[in-house]
Amino acid sequence: MSTFSDSLTADRKVDAATPVECLRLAGDDTRALHSVVHSFELADLTAVLVDEILFRCDPPGNAEPVTIALDVTRGEERVSASFLLQAGRPVGLNEADGPAALFRLEYDVLDLVRELFGPSTPGGPANRRTELRFVPESMTVEGVRPLGSIMAAAGTVLTGCSSDHPGLARLAVRHDSDKWGGLHWFASLYERHLRHLRDHPVRLLEIGIGGYDHPTLGGGSLKMWKHYFPRGLIFGVDLHDKSGLDQQRLHTLRADQSDPAQLTEIAEKHGPFDIVIDDGSHINEHVRTTFRTLFPHVRTEGLYVIEDLWTSYAPGFGGSEDPAACDSTTLGLVKRLVDDLHYEEQPVKPTDGVGPSLAGLHLYRNIAFLEKGRNAEGGIPGWIRH
Ligand SMILES: C[S@@+](CC[C@H](N)C(=O)[O-])C[C@H]1O[C@@H](n2cnc3c(N)ncnc32)[C@H](O)[C@@H]1O
């Protein structure tokens, strides 16, 4: 991704019928899942599943290095992968021979797909085979620790294979997002407004990837969203090239949020979106432009979120110390939306607002959740005394 247009061209493959796209969309329809897992080579499906497991595993806690083998089967076919785990490093793939693994895990491909891309289910042992290959005779005094390491490592991989749903605050800390910590406490508010979408194949766009012009820093919140929405497709937009952060189900795009043409091109190619989040420049005029441009590309009952409302009062961000300066600030936009929400109740109905497609407005300190929807109940009738 070197330029804005290049990034769009490269990203066209996002919409192709790739295994990951088909898997995340198949959801909980057993017949659709069955059809998808028989449409691709088992090795290609396994590559997608292994990528997902690597991403979802907690950091290993085992002191000694341990290899855990995973067999994915489809009838007589079998594809194996081998994970290497040791405390202090992220879970990796072991190029060494699989059979050396002291713990093996086996899933029928359909069951593993359902675990990773289906709706969450309470964990249970009924969809997998496990085999501990540790030989007790070799257990010396020191040998006790390897057994503990094997058990811990096996637990880590199994957790990565499950549809267990960690909370958003935990995921924010895990993936280094500032949405939960000393500066902001947004994660619990997001949880309140997004939890019902968790099992859906949402399309989420966040403006502002983080890390500014550093090519591989940032992306904490995008990873957090990818983990939170196991079937989600996550897009991040930034002024800078962040393609070093691209992953399966996580795509970076380059654009200036103050340019409506660039935002529109992205939205037409990748939207409509279920969720749009503005955590970019926080320059008031940019936030207003971005809202005007992208709100129309949020689907009905989707959400548009604006973070860091405090810059409304910060002249360095184009804000104003005067709270009444509503024509140019982000909070001025939000205040206007309160009136737009009630457009049908006004004697002279505004024609230039987003009222007809604004269903709700949830305002908290420093963050606003704007709900898209059909706002057309007709207003309180004129024969009721006003
Ligand atoms: C606060 S960081 C985003 C943090 C990230 N959302 C998170 O929660 O981990 C802001 C990002 O916005 C980007 N940015 C600044 N101005 C921008 C603009 N005009 N258009 C797009 N992105 C911009 C910066 O490069 C920076 O990476």
**Helix segment tally:** 12
Overall average residue pLDDT: 89
DSSP strand (E) fraction? 15-25%
How many domain units? 2
CATH homology superfamily of the largest domain: Vaccinia Virus protein VP39
Amino-to-carboxy terminus distance: 58 Å
How are the strands of the biggest sheet laid out side by side? 8-7-6-9-10-12-11
Largest sheet: 7 strands, mixed
Low-confidence stretches: 1-15
**In percent, how helical is the residue content?**
25-40%
CATH class of the largest domain: Alpha Beta
In the CATH hierarchy, the architecture of the largest domain is 3-Layer(aba) Sandwich
Per CATH, what is the topology of the largest domain? Rossmann fold
Bound ligand species: S-adenosylmethionine
Report on the structure:
This protein has 386 residues and is an alpha/beta fold. The chain has helices spanning 4-11, 19-26, 30-37, 42-56, 109-117, 144-161, 168-174, 187-194, 220-228, 260-270, 284-294, 330-341, and strands at residues 66-74, 77-85, 92-93, 103-108, 129-132, 203-207, 233-238, 250-254, 273-278, 298-307, 358-364, 367-372. It has a seven-stranded mixed beta sheet, with helices on both faces. The chain has a five-stranded mixed beta sheet with strand order 3-2-1-4-5. Helix 9 links the parallel strand 6 and strand 7 (233-238). Helix 2 (19-26) packs antiparallel against helix 3 (30-37) and helix 4 packs across helix 5 (109-117). Residues 1-15 have low confidence and may be disordered. It binds S-adenosylmethionine (SAM).
